[in-house]
Amino acid sequence: MPWKKVCSLNDLEKDQIAEFDVQGVLVAVVRGENQPVVIPPMCPHLEEPLCEGVCDGRTLTCHKHLWQWDLETGNPMGLAQKPLKRYDSKVEGDTLFALIDQEILYDYE
Ligand code: FES
Asked: What is the C-alpha to C-alpha distance for residues 102 and 68, in angstroms, rounded to an integer?
């Protein structure tokens, strides 16, 4: 499975959350304190866009019901009841790549 280019690091400010279309798969990228994280664009709670949320360096917060996740691990914090799924990613030079074999989707009940 080949690495796919997601974006240039120059496309993102610190603590910014942005969406990118990677060869037909929409992803969100969160640039916190460390390496950017590549995630599905919708909240695992009720399918709200996470790009409208807030990143404070180490934590991502969904704007809708304030579920939060640790960006390093994807583990839920506070009110959140599901982990944040992530695509494997790496940085080479100023380019962010991710392994996107198939779209990651959450189970919404
Ligand atoms: S939709 Fe994101 S916390 Fe509820």
From this structure: 25
